[in-house]
Amino acid sequence: MRILDLYGLVTPGVHRWLAQGLDFTTARAIEAYSPDYFLVQTSVAPLDLDVLNKDYSVAAVLDARYLIYERTTGSK
User: What CA–CA distance (Å, rounded) separates 28 from 22?
Assistant: First the structure.
């Protein structure tokens, strides 16, 4: 399974977006890489996922600290 790292260690392609903030970086990474799933830590400032990408919905909650988003059927 391919891993996308929004801090750029594993996915250096996101470096150009980091200065724009977490929401912007996440939105661009989702758009550029079209992952099947992505994980968001809930203790970090909440992402505005309605703005980020409407092709994803919450698939699971892990220990109330993480949300797993899944690409919905019919999208990319």
Answer: 10
Alpha-carbon distance 28 to 73, whole Å?
21
pLDDT at 16: 93
pTM of the predicted structure, to 2 decimals: 0.71
Q: Residue 65 is encoded by which pair of tokens?
A: 């600290």
Domain boundaries, the chain: 12-71
Residue 51 pLDDT exceeds 60: no
Strand partners, 68: 39, 60
Which one-letter amino acid corresponds to residue 15? Answer: H
DSSP string, 20-45: G-HHHHHHHHHHHH--SEEEEETTSP
